[in-house]
Design brief:
Blueprint lengths: L3 H8 L6 H16 L3 H18 L2 H17 L1 H4 L2 H17 L8 H17 L5 H11 L4 H13 L9 H14 L3 H12 L10 H13 L3 H15 L6 H14 L1 H17 L3 H20 L1 H7 L11 H23 L3 H7 L6
Helix pairs in contact: 1-2, 2-3, 3-4, 3-6, 4-6, 6-7, 8-9, 10-11, 10-12, 12-13, 12-14, 13-14, 14-15, 14-16, 15-16, 16-17, 16-18, 18-19
Length: 353
């Protein structure tokens, strides 16, 4: 009989990402062979968590139905507080990840949300996280539904499934800036800026919202203030390709050599990324940079450093590739969502000047 606890301790020593995912897949296979229900559940949960935070989130969407089926087929898991709590946490990650893939339809995403809400109610949990995640998705789909979800989110109490008090304020920043209410966004920022609450992606995620807002409203000095505080926190981390894209757009206009360095440092990771949402933002920012480089081609030769697989590719070819990727991805997301939010971000990052 396999010592599954020891097997879990072993794969936790592997590097995050693909190495650990490969080891967990082998652990899942062993648990399935021995029909160890408990470990079939936990190894799939481990795999899903690793995929969400350090791998390809599409793998999480593939493994989640298996996790859900194991839970639903075994009453002993349903009667366990730890298994039920972990399933709801996994569901929370899935409703966040699913919209990042344009091949997943609005109907499928809404189905995830309906099932998540049903399970939260069944366990007598707050609907705070349901409304928060649904608001985030619907900001780019239907502003009225997003607003309804946002105010329902504010009314619901936080609980052990919620993302915590820090993200409670971060969500307010994002929503208020999306509707142009800078004053309320700054008020929501205050508890975070003062260090009253913490989460691992502050300030980079929150400040990125201000960078985007001030770019859209033509307040570039304010955009630079927030951008300069987060650049070093995001570069080199593929999880933040969406923020890098925003910064490259800004720096392409205000400091092109800086944008070139960010592109050069992170382009290889972009080429390896399988997340369409992250790739879209990076491609948008890079395409804006290459628009600037076409005006100043000497910067391309001086500042751009390409990975081995792209060495020898000229400015015009690379620019065309980035624009093709940005255009295709924004179209895919907007077609799925039924809006033109991302297309406008691509075509008019500084508003319609």
């Amino acid at each position: 009989m396999t010592d599954f606890a020891n097997l879990e301790q072993t794969f936790e020593q592997y590097d995050r990402g693909e190495a650990r995912l490969t080891a967990i897949r082998k652990a899942i296979h062993e648990a399935d062979l021995e029909q160890s229900i408990n470990w079939q559940f936990w190894f799939r949960y481990d795999y899903l968590e690793e995929s969400i935070f350090c791998g390809d989130r599409y793998f999480a969407l593939i493994i989640f139905p298996e996790l859900l089926a194991i839970y639903d087929e075994h009453t002993e898991l349903q009667e366990s507080e730890s298994h039920t709590h972990s399933l709801l946490i996994a569901f929370k990650w899935i409703v966040e990840a699913a919209p990042e893939f344009p091949q997943i339809s609005r109907e499928e995403i809404d189905g995830y949300f309906r099932e998540f809400k049903k399970r939260l109610r069944r366990e007598e949990k707050s609907l705070s996280i349901y409304y928060m995640k649904r608001c985030l998705f619907y900001m780019h789909v239907d502003k009225d539904i997003a607003g309804m979800c946002f105010y329902r989110f504010l009314d619901e109490p936080l609980d052990d499934i919620s993302d915590g008090r820090a993200l409670y304020y971060d969500q307010q920043v994002e929503y208020y800036l999306s509707v142009g209410d800078e004053e309320k966004a700054l008020q929501a920022l205050q508890p975070l800026a003062e260090g009253q609450y913490h989460f691992s992606h502050f300030p980079q995620v929150t400040y990125n919202e201000f960078v985007s807002y001030y770019m859209r409203t033509g307040q570039l000095d304010k955009a630079r203030y927030y951008a300069d505080q987060i650049e070093s926190r995001v570069t080199g981390d593929p999880y933040y390709h969406h923020i890098m894209g925003t910064l490259m757009t800004l720096y392409a206009k205000t400091d092109p050599p800086r944008a070139c360095r960010m592109f050069s440092h992170n382009y290889a990771d972009y080429l390896e990324s399988k997340n369409p949402w992250l790739r879209m933002f990076f491609a948008i920012g890079a395409s804006h940079l290459f628009d600037r480089l076409r005006q100043e081609p000497e910067l391309f030769a001086k500042e751009i450093r390409l990975p081995a697989v792209k060495r020898g590719v000229d400015l015009q070819t690379l620019s065309a590739e980035l624009h093709a990727s940005a255009g295709a991805l924004t179209n895919q997301f907007d077609t799925r969502n039924g809006t033109d939010d991302y297309t406008q971000m691509y075509l008019h990052p500084f508003g319609k000047e």
